[in-house]
Amino acid sequence: GVTVADRYWVGGSGNWDASSTANWSASSGGASGASAPTSADNVIFDANSNVGTGAFTVTVTGTSAAPAVCNDFSTGGAGGALDGAMTLTMGATAVLSCHGSITAPATNFSTSGTAGAEIFLAATSTGKTITTNGVAFTNISFRCITTSGEWTLGSALTASTLIMQAGTFITSNYNMT
Known about the structure:
By secondary structure, the protein is mostly beta strands. The chain has no helices and 17 strands.
């Protein structure tokens, strides 16, 4: 089987693509240089992700040919809640391929997208969740791409579009805007 590892963002602002190791660590606040996340690796953004308590930007530069990848996308964990404002930025050709659940914090987190940016929901099993906690994914589309994947909303979803290419999407009576 595939071993799940955790990858923690460190060093403040930087680019997230398929191969860069500049901002990834194997531990919260640890040294950078850990391998870029794979579909089996959970990515965690926490109080040790930025420099001090400063604001920082994570720019997804992965593309459809070589997307930024993760299993679960979350914040907090071992290093605690974000203590500085984090912006997840995605340009017009940016792709983040998420193979697990997505959990955004209600505070210190925002997104900035350009039309064309996409988050591929690529899970191959059921039981995955998307919890935005009120964060809008403006100009960012969600695309369900795997037939065996299933995603359930844990809060309302505001995004550019939801594209159901394959799989199952359960709203749980939460609003989609």
